[in-house]
Give the backbone structure.
Amino acid sequence: MSDLTQYRFSFGPWNISEGADPFGPEVRSPYTLEEKLGWYRPLGFEGVQFHDDDVVEGLDGLEHLQIIKRAREVGQALRDHGLVAEFVAPRLWFDPRTIDGGYTSNSPAERQYALDRSVKAIDIAREIETPNIVLWLAREGSYVRESKNAKTAYARILDAVNLLLEYDDSIQVWIEPKPNEPMDHAYVPTIGHAIALAYQSADPSRVSGLIETAHAVLAGLDPSDEMAFALAHDKLASVHLNDQNGLKFDQDKSFGAANLRSAYNQVRVLEQNGFGRRGEFIGLDVKLMRTQKQDGSMAHLANSREFFLHLLDKVRTTDTALQDQLIADRNYEELEAYTLRHLLGVSARVFEGAAPQQLQSAAKV
């Protein structure tokens, strides 16, 4: 059997969206969760990412037994389709009680709501058979610096993480950092912050990180270096691969669509460091273009997975001996040129052996 990593892929049902944005309404018709689950395997995916209310719609208005009943139904649907749940994330940014943060709100009642909602997410996760809880701290931050005591806010986030760890000693908490949006300035903005929080938690072995490409770009950081940092601490639980065209709103473009070189290096760092060998998923978090018609609602997912596999082939077919020699010679100019040629599929130098004067003449032509 090949010793190469056999990657598994996941995405969340929200990735098959209706195309609404802050400036316009839906442009496509919605699909039910059951319909979406039927598309995972044909697209080459086996893992499903969930928010708590992706599993149980309207859960704030339901009793505990009603929540458990619906979660069990979704768990059975996953098994029927040969799928597994990758994680459950409490959605702590939609409810009016979370407009100023959940865990870090200045209101004790609102902080209690966020904790109660997070516990419900763990109950749901048990029923769909995943131990993984993702915390995207979407509104844990400030619009006005003076509105919150940041030191106290960090302590409250840590308290929330510890409460979840204590509630169920089998869960894993994955922190997904993002520097801004929807909050002006977010607490825990990078993977370094998330890992520091993990080490300070009651059980550091059960707290790690999930890195999204676009979130790293929005922080002005290189996604592959962020992944490498987490891998160095053995705390990269999962990834959300996508792309981002500059420092603007979180675009969630198809993987590789804006920066193919960056995408290549993300695949490279994952492959070279054994990510996926313990069953970790290559997760996608990509938005379908608003202009796409209804019948192409899954194209961005198929394309992103395809591009990952193409780039994986590029990583695996790199001339490592040549690369090592160029590094030893500190010939980084040629190393970069080799990388670009390899990505472009150019097999030989166009100006092999040409004198400098000839190169200058060719450039003028």
